[in-house]
Amino acid sequence: MALAQSALLLFHGSAQAASFDVLHSFCQTNEKAPTSPAQCEGGSSPWSRLLQIGSDFYGTTESGGTGGPTYSGTVFRLTAAGAFKVLHNFCTHTYCADGGLPGQYLARGTDGNIYGVAQGDGSNSNGGTIFKVTPAGDYTTVYRLCSQKGCLDGYDPNGVTFDFVGDMFGTTDGGGAHDEGTVFEITAAGTFRKLHDFCAAANCADGLMPGALLLGKDGNFYGTTKAGGRHQAGTVFRITPTGTFTTLYSFCPAKDCPDGKQPNAALVQAKDGNFYGTTLLGGAHTEGTVFQMTPAGAVKTLHSFCTRDYCRDGSAPMDGLIQGADGRLYGTTNAGGSYYHGVLFAITTAGSFTAVHDFCSERGCFDGASPAAAPILGADGNLYGAATAGGDKNNVGAIYRLTP
């Protein structure tokens, strides 16, 4: 894959050397000179996990683009040859009816198109949108949230995923019967159906403010909530495609939340059948954790962040994990590390932790900084991801590749 900038970088953040290279830096000098990061025509602050279709990568930026006075983000494509193209600028429709500020996760539909969510739909009380973009860039709004009276269908969507037959499932941060979020389904025929209203149980024991869903190997969906649960520190839950809801675990049953607090990202189910995830807070040093959960709901803390001096192992993981070709789990932290701008880490399912790359290791943070999303496993076995800051020239983000 051609490099958009910089030669191959070598680093030694672990016992074995890994190679790291930057494929694209946002807000390149050939764009119109911005007066602020929000005005980068190619987008700025890449926020989502990447999505690979064929040899191309797709993602979103939280800001930038040419979609109007608020510069509310983009959907982009990066080809295997290194060619970068904006597929959609948000907030191009009247009152931003196409949405703005796209979410952290993209999904590939059974039709081969790209699906995601965005906030800020001006036509429906800012409830947000669910959108479809073809690989060629044709954009369609699939559903506008808060279409129902009182936002009973939810608002502020977190992401969508698909079941085995092509129906779409997702969550919202707010709205629903108790204004604490929902789980919903949109069938392949376009019919919207709400499956669960959060905070339906006494004291919100079922959780509130859910994150994105994972389709498990058993055909059910698994997710986390940032708050609520028996100890008001978040939960892990399971919901069937027909809406049967089960709280599997409530965080913080012990003083100071050694098991973590506020899980806020999608889970991953590893090859061993267990689920793995992160918490933003809690753990032995209050800076977040990596945890394992069995299908029955037994949780084990694998790593507490900020274990090393000055949080050199990272702090504040803002996304979950993926499993690499070597069987290890990979993720990022938004802060900490040797240069205080986050790390890309690996951890075994037994809990052996390695800080693989320290972001901002290059002068000027040309290798990126402060990632908000986990990398993905590419078809070639390498890891690909985005950092929300750093990169060449304008410090508004970069796309990277790591060869373990």
The geometry reads as globular
Number of helices, counting only DSSP H or I runs of 4 residues or more: 0
Topology, number of strands: 32
Strand percent estimate: 35-45%
Ends distance = 16 Å
Spatially, the strands of the biggest sheet line up as 1-2-32-31-30
Mean pLDDT over the residues: 91
Radius of gyration: 20 Å
Helix/strand-derived category reads mainly beta
Summed up:
By secondary structure, the chain is an all-beta fold.
Question: Topology, please?
Answer:
Elements (H helix, E strand, L loop, with lengths): L8 E3 L6 E8 L18 E3 L4 E3 L2 E8 L10 E5 L5 E6 L10 E3 L4 E2 L5 E6 L9 E5 L5 E6 L10 E8 L5 E7 L7 E5 L5 E6 L10 E3 L3 E2 L5 E7 L7 E5 L5 E6 L17 E2 L5 E5 L9 E5 L5 E6 L17 E2 L5 E4 L10 E5 L5 E6 L17 E2 L5 E5 L10 E6 L1
Antiparallel strand pairs: 1-2, 2-32, 3-5, 4-5, 5-6, 6-7, 8-10, 9-10, 10-11, 11-12, 13-14, 14-15, 15-16, 17-19, 18-19, 19-20, 20-21, 22-23, 23-24, 24-25, 26-27, 27-28, 28-29, 30-31, 31-32
